[in-house]
Amino acid sequence: MHKKYRHLSRDERGKIMYLSMWGKKASQIAVLLGRHKSTISRELCRNVSPYWDHYTDESAQLKADRRRKQASQRYRLKNERIRSYVERKLEDGWSPEIIAGRIKLDLPGCTISHEAIYQYVYHLDKPERDKYIGYLRRSHRRRRKRGTGKAQRKSRIPNRISIDNRPVAVERRRQFGHWEGDSLVSSRNSVALYSLVERKTRLLQLERVRRRDSKRTARAVIKRLGPLMRTPMAASVGTSPRAPILLN
């Protein structure tokens, strides 16, 4: 297993300065500090003070801090062709996910991930950042960290039986009379379609529901399955907390 790299500390840089002034070589300093020889050699080469013409810990620390800051602000999408394509498609209303999937067809040989596009947008300087954030479907001024969304709601149905526990005959579609119900909900209003699918025959029943609540959903199910209820039937429902439990 590879060891995790540790940046040189201010104290270590002070020791490097004094040891180098005493004539110690990079390999000797590396042994004394418990560091790799290449780490010390690189430190001595790129952090020479422009004023004193030799290594100083203060100058080295300032340069290291500047490099670390610039690394966190590194400009994304350096490829001009890809950047122009991404910006144009964002202005056309495309999501980063669609752009990432389509660019391979429109620009053969070019690839970009949707995550890189989000990083590019959220690291632009104002007013460009606000402009392109406005093109995103979810125009958050600050991007949420992964895994910090709303927790999944728990079902409110008491004594609920998981769909994973249904009999093998039902799972393999061997018996007629087992129905699956689900709501198709519009994001703009409360109107919904309630769908019922018989597992064996794939028979589909649809009923429009003005409001997605348990009473209206139950009436829709009774209306659609009433004529077919001569034999015992069962229905498995989705994860919606408002979905009714249907028994034989």
From TrEMBL:
One of its GO terms (cellular component) is cytosol. One of its GO terms (biological process) is DNA recombination. The keyword Ligase does not apply. It comes from the Bacteria. The keyword Metal-binding does not apply. Keywords: DNA recombination. One of its GO terms (molecular function) is transposase activity. Pfam families: HTH_38. This is Transposase IS30-like HTH domain-containing protein. It comes from candidate division WOR-3 bacterium JGI_Cruoil_03_51_56.
